[in-house]
Design brief:
Helix content is about 40%, strand content about 10%. The protein has about 475 residues and is α/β, with parallel strands linked by helices. Bound molecules: pyridoxal-5'-phosphate. Its cofactor is pyridoxal 5'-phosphate.
Length: about 475
């Protein structure tokens, strides 16, 4: 494809995306295909001869779109949002066009330095501790996901616990322990497995009535395990748990971790970005105790996947765990110690120029635009929760400080409430106008309404509420018959 052909087809593809965003509300939110439908619509063999982009665009419509769940649909309230935006897509397009591999500073200095700078900007916007700045002892890096960031944090913590050795030569992998709660994201357990820790390495600390980790339980477990000869390595505290957005009390957990010499990792994958809004920062009080911190711009901050913002307070622990310098990567800038080589801050060697999309997003919206986005969603969630709370057909189940509301329908008579709740969810999702997901609280299913898709407005939330009420009434009648 020549640059001129690229220009022409690039315009067509950008038009296609803009048209998709314009008509997105006309699609059923959840894909309605059955397993195997998409593959059945594809030819068995790849094309022998090249085809025009128009043919590919035609198949995007015919084959791909029916198999897409429309995460950018204004009626998408499932899981956590996976934001994208025009500036994010354009930044990614430039990154793709430059085709830079930014593994080392020398392989493209701007890829490293723009990332350092943007991460420092974000650290400031989120009011993270000064130690996280590249100008201090720490620094930030863009990772592919918070799951990856959780693994990297654990590797850095193991490096520190082994006093500079490796897991094998420093801390005994069968004695190293990681502390989570039952609400912690499953990626932390996966990280422990990948890091080669023992099968019982993950200790589950009790939670309180708000599903937040109990500091006293953590302290008692740390003391007991240490007395038994184990090495507590990392505590993972969550700000905004995946299930219900519970908040572990950082200000109380921090001093306990510090006293025990344990690495405190804060997983704020979804909720951390709310720190751009001053009045929401109190929810992360105590973040200054963190040794590392992760939050995803690709969830709720108008940036397309993948854009995990990850910081450490002591970059030496991270690079000590992950740096390897083979001969073929040696260069003067690295040898002089004058630069950051981000390949030493992540699992993979190669890396995309992801800072570009963050830079585009920040420059297009400005800090104030990001605040407006988060504030708007939190306000909608609070209004929605008030509607639910005031209605005797539903209960709000958990606290809802961010933009997720968990609710449980009430059912009269001897109806199996769990079955009825899941039936309500399926009816709503089958309807195509909205999409929600569920979790369990206290062993019972509850509906999660995650507000945060950029296109969602009050009108869409009102429509969701109307659909919830209508379908609840219809089902309640149906069960009564
Ligand atoms: N941590 C928490 C608290 C999450 O909620 C999630 C995903 O929802 C993750 C980690 C994993 O995030 P990612 O999809 O970026 O790996």
């Amino acid at each position: 494809m020549t640059p001129e052909q690229f220009r022409q087809h690039g315009h067509e593809v950008v038009d296609w995306i803009a048209d998709y965003w314009t008509r997105i509300g006309s699609f059923p939110v959840r894909s309605q295909v059955s397993p195997g439908d998409v593959r059945a619509a594809l030819p068995a063999s790849p094309p022998e001869q090249g085809e025009p982009i128009s043919a590919v665009l035609a198949d995007l419509e015919r084959v791909v779109l029916p198999g897409v769940t429309h995460w950018q649909h204004p009626g998408f309230f499932g899981y956590f949002p996976a934001n994208t935006s025009g500036p994010s897509v354009l930044g990614d397009l430039v990154s793709a066009g430059l085709g830079v591999q930014g593994m080392s500073w020398v392989t493209s200095p701007a890829a490293t330095e723009l990332e350092q700078h943007v991460m420092d900007w974000f650290a400031g916007l989120l009011r993270l501790p000064e130690t996280f700045l590249s100008t201090s002892t720490g620094g930030g890096v863009v990772q592919d996901s918070s799951s990856g960031a959780n693994l990297v944090a654990l590797l850095a913590a193991l490096h520190r616990a082994s006093k500079g050795g490796t897991v094998r030569h420093g801390v005994d992998p069968d004695r190293a322990l990681v502390y989570v709660s039952a609400e912690t994201h499953s990626s932390m357990e996966k990280a422990a497995r990948i890091a080669g820790l023992g099968s019982d390495a993950v200790r589950i600390v009790e939670v309180d009535g708000d599903l937040a980790m109990r500091p006293a339980s953590l302290k008692a477990r740390l003391e007991r395990d240490t007395a038994r000869g184990f090495t507590p390595v990392l505590v993972c505290a969550t700000v905004g748990t995946t299930s219900t957005t519970a908040i572990d009390p950082l200000a109380e957990l921090g001093p306990i971790c510090r006293e025990a010499g344990v690495w405190l990792h804060v997983d704020a994958a979804y909720a951390g970005v709310s720190g751009v809004v001053p009045e929401l920062r109190e929810l992360q009080a105590g973040v200054e105790w963190a040794d590392s911190y992760t939050t995803d711009a690709h969830k709720w901050l108008l940036t397309g996947f993948d854009a995990t913002l990850f910081w450490v307070a002591d970059r030496a622990a991270l690079t000590g765990a992950l740096s390897i310098l083979p001969e073929y990567l040696r260069n003067a800038a690295t040898e002089a110690g004058a630069v950051v080589d981000y390949r030493d801050w992540q699992i993979e060697l190669g890396r995309r120029f992801r800072a570009l999309k963050l830079w585009f997003v920040l420059r297009w919206y400005g800090a104030e635009g990001l605040r407006e986005h988060i504030r708007g969603d939190v306000a909608l969630a609070q209004e929605f929760a008030a509607l639910v709370d005031a209605d005797d057909r539903f209960d709000v189940v958990t606290k809802h400080p961010f933009s997720l509301v968990c609710l449980k329908p009430r059912w009269a008579g001897d109806v199996d409430a769990d079955v009825a709740t899941m039936t309500l969810l399926e009816r709503l999702n089958d309807g195509g106008e909205v999409f929600l997901t569920h979790t369990t609280v206290g062993g019972q299913p509850v509906l999660r309404v995650a507000i945060g898709t950029p296109a969602t407005t009050r009108e869409h939330v009102d429509r969701l509420w109307a659909l919830l009420c209508e379908n609840h009434d219809w089902l309640a009648n149906d069960f009564a018959e």
